[in-house]
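quick one before i forget lol
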Amino acid sequence: MRPIRKLLPDTYFFPDAPTGRVMRFNRRYYEAVLSGQKTSTIRWDETHHVGAATFVFEGHPEFAHLDGSITAIESTTLSELDPEYAAGLRGHYPAMPADAELLRVHFQVQRAE
């Protein structure tokens, strides 16, 4: 699987477009994100920006998605992570190199009022 920006690297970006973004999750994280138990994620070889976002849970039987926002992004490396966590991350990114630079993306779900 490859991000669309790698398949179409010269895509035109409309600078005045709404800033809403999509961040994808495995469906198993839906309840943890919804409840607020999970508020950050580690990403490799992805681009994210602070601001409004829609969280999409791939493979969810009801095409679950939540509105929210990305609140902060920090740089980290694979070597800075707990070894057990890093090993689990390889399940998501099997091609990730040992010296991978990663993003720690903090987010929050918009609560219905």
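fyi Strands lie at 21-26, 40-44, 51-58, 65-77, 101-109.
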